[in-house]
Amino acid sequence: MVFNLTPRLLLALSLGTFRVLGHDGHDETQMPLDYVRFPYQAMYPGDNSVTADSIFSGITTFARLPWVQCLTREKDVPFDIAFLGAPFDTGTSYRPGARFGPAGIRAGSRRLTLYGGYNVPLEVNPFLSGLKIVDCGDIPVTPYDNTFAIQQIEDGHRELLHRTPFSALPNDSSTGEALVPLAKDGKHHPRVITLGGDHTIVLPLLRSVYSAYGPISVIHFDSHLDTWKPSVFGGAPSERAAINHGTYFYWASREGLIANGTSIASIPFLMASHGAIRTTLSGPADYANDDESGFQRIEAREIDTIGTTGIIKKIRETVGDRPVYLSIDIDSIDPAFAPATGTPETGGWSTRELRTILRGLDGLHIVSADIVEVAPAYDTNAELTTMAAADVLFEVLSVMAKTPLGKVG
């Protein structure tokens, strides 16, 4: 028997591809013969395995994680940690562009696993930790109505937060006893790492977290307080304008999502901490308002006197072993290292210093996290800011992978 193979068919066979015909006979897709639609996780090299693969190929997800359409057709796919984009920037006050932050951060993360993904200081490869980690894409966010967009973000995050995780809580590594969930609703929840977006998104994210954990401890890395009264920051000409990237913690405090933490003894269940603060103020009243909102402040310049070790100590003493939400504004890093942000402030920490401080959070129960204010349009051709954002999240992911969200009953 003789087959006449056309050049086009020979090419398809050499590439290992075949055509899928729709029900009406029309061409729909072309895919490799060994294509897996829903992989358990991306293929990351382990210890002494082959590395330096072509990580620049394929669609861009965070660190080449599997893309799962968590909010639409794949709502039944479980996970332990999800990356979720919130492309919103209409609450910013200076330079817009953070709506492109999720895409930029994903691009900056492409080289994260070039050598395999093993975190040397934390002694863990989060991608091979046994957890199911996925990229859920972006929440569909309208650019025309802030009130509606904020609700979209809360709904999208809450939808993922209340899923049943892929993995059950393990036993305690020290005692062997079964761990029980930390959440106030008594359930074990997956974790969501949100890619912003301007910092306004944290208000709907904290509303979502509150639905599972109640009032939550907060660690906030930022050059700005973000607890300004709306009457001061922007003047609040309308209810819609009163919620922005400088006032969201003001509202979170008043809604009871975080509580007044000025007295450690009187608030045993909640502490909140700012780190890398170096902003100018309208005056001392801004600090008084920040105190009322429940935050302990760590000024950026303190790194010159107490170093990263002292800063880590202050943070850990503030939040203790309580469940904690972690919010990272990329402008906590000095613009020499991360220029592409909405409101840059000189005199910040280096990328190395922030990563060191984040590794110092090892053992904390981080229930969810975000990185915000990455505006790729202002970046260099070398992608300095988006790479820094991705590397920061690599540290956060590593801490999460090492510490399950449970306690001995």
Describe the structure.
- Mean pLDDT is 86; it is low at 8-29, 35-41 and 261-270.
- The protein has 409 residues and is of the alpha/beta class.
- The chain is 25% helix and 16% strand.
- The strands form 3 sheets. The protein has an 8-stranded parallel beta sheet with strand order 4-3-6-11-10-7-8-9, with helices on both faces. A two-stranded antiparallel sheet has the order 1-2.
- This is Agmatinase.
Report the helical percentage: 10-25%
Biggest sheet record: 8 strands, parallel
Mean pLDDT: 86
Oligomer: single chain
Q: Number of helical runs?
A: 9
SSE string, helices as H and strands as E: HEEEHEHEEHEHEHEHEHEHE
Strand coverage percent: 15-25%
Structural class: alpha/beta
- List low-pLDDT spans: 8-29, 35-41, 261-270
How many beta-strand segments? 12
Over the alpha carbons, how many angstroms does the gyration radius reach?
22 Å
Distance between the termini: 72 Å
User: Which strand order spans the largest sheet, edge to edge or round the barrel?
Assistant: 4-3-6-11-10-7-8-9
Shape verdict: globular
Topology of helices and strands:
Blueprint: H1 7-15, E1 17-21, E2 27-32, E3 81-86, H2 101-108, E4 133-138, H3 146-161, E5 179-181, E6 191-196, H4 202-213, E7 217-221, H5 248-254, E8 272-277, H6 285-292, E9 295-299, H7 307-319, E10 324-329, H8 351-359, E11 366-372, H9 384-402, E12 406-408
Helix pairs in contact: 2-9, 3-4, 4-5, 7-8, 8-9
